[in-house]
TrEMBL record:
Pathway named in the protein's UniProt entry: Purine metabolism; purine nucleoside salvage
GO annotation terms (biological process): nucleoside metabolic process
One GO CC annotation: cytoplasm
Keywords assigned by UniProt, alphabetized: Glycosyltransferase, Transferase
PANTHER family cross-referenced by the UniProt entry: METHYLTHIOADENOSINE/PURINE NUCLEOSIDE PHOSPHORYLASE (PTHR11904), PURINE NUCLEOSIDE PHOSPHORYLASE-RELATED (PTHR11904:SF9)
Name of the protein in question: Purine nucleoside phosphorylase
Length: 314
């Protein structure tokens, strides 16, 4: 009998433990014993799905086949879970090859559904990757931001994945987020970059600013995001991080800088203000984001695998 579709198994208002148990049981029943209790989960963002290509003993599941999962509709997001062994230590890991986004029309509960399933499977560490635009001019295209903190614009406006009844089996009603991004994992990320002899400055700590999308930011919005403390801006990551921390999963955030955000005032049509004309900055597009991800894919693969090898065994 084919598995039920997500429409039959998942009500966006239903946050009972049973819906997550059903998904975890479906996966565990179809995985070999060496893979059915992964310790690490990796969410692959735009153009970074190649991270899952080098794992050993790979077993894959299309999202539409997993109870409770929705489908990804964004170019560069393949839409599957890949389980396998990664690195010299052959750590059992689950890759989310393509994530869900708020702008696709999914609820925040649907977007973060996989993270709670990961918790039920035994995941202890979540590595979230993605592509971002640089607000701060201390960042350049191709650099990798190591997230230290985030600003959630949707969250401040009431769109938080923990909104509604609390699932106490996962965590408390009011979880702290001041330690959302694990310090020890960030230290390991920089050690991994040094071990790989990445040029100095390839990795840099950053504050991630989460916006809803799908339109890219206006210049005025970009200046505002920079003013309130954002270094990088993206349309994902933060909902998954919030739910992971609610579940007690440690988080490392790695984000590839794919473009420079237009932040200047641009051309002025008022003749009286001609001397104040700004520089006309190029427009960003999703193809540019994907291309940058493709160009840096190998470095990201090496970095993530080395980080996992450097994590102390428990």
């Amino acid at each position: 009998m084919p598995p039920p579709t997500h429409d039959q198994t998942y009500n966006t208002e239903d946050v009972s433990i049973a819906v997550f148990t059903a998904a975890a049981n479906y996966l565990r029943a179809r995985l070999p014993s060496e893979l059915n209790s992964p310790k690490v989960a990796i969410i692959c963002g735009s153009g970074l799905g190649q991270l899952a290509d080098t794992i050993e003993n790979k077993v894959e599941f299309a999202y539409e086949d997993i109870p409770g999962f929705v489908s990804s509709t964004v170019p560069g997001h393949l839409g599957k879970l890949a389980f396998g062994l990664i690195g010299d230590k052959r750590i059992p890991t689950v890759f989310m090859v393509g994530r869900f986004h708020f702008y696709e029309g999914h609820t925040l509960k649907q977007i973060t559904f996989p993270v709670r399933v990961f918790k039920m499977l035994g995941v202890e560490i979540l590595i979230v990757t993605g592509a971002t635009g640089a607000l701060s001019r201390e960042f350049k295209v191709g650099m990798i931001g190591v997230t230290t903190d985030h600003i959630s614009l949707p969250g401040l406006a009431g769109n938080n994945p923990l909104f509604g009844p609390n699932v106490s089996a996962f965590g408390p009603r009011f979880p702290p987020m001041s330690n959302a991004y694990d310090y020890d994992l960030r230290v390991i990320a920089f050690k991994a970059a040094d071990y790989l002899r990445f040029p100095t400055g390839t990795l840099k700590e950053a504050i991630y600013t989460f916006v809803g999308g799908p339109s890219f930011e206006t210049r005025a919005e970009a200046r505002y995001l920079s003013l309130i403390g954002g270094d990088l801006v993206g349309m994902s990551t933060v909902p998954e991080v919030i739910v992971a921390r609610h579940c007690g999963i440690k988080v490392l955030g790695l984000t590839l800088v794919s473009n420079m955000v237009a932040i200047g005032k641009g051309k002025c049509a008022d003749p009286a203000e001609q001397d104040l004309n700004g520089i006309e900055e190029p427009l960003v597009n999703h193809e540019e984001v994907l291309q940058t991800g493709k160009e840096r894919a190998l470095d990201m693969q090496k970095l993530v695998k080395t980080i996992i090898d450097l994590i102390p065994s428990t």
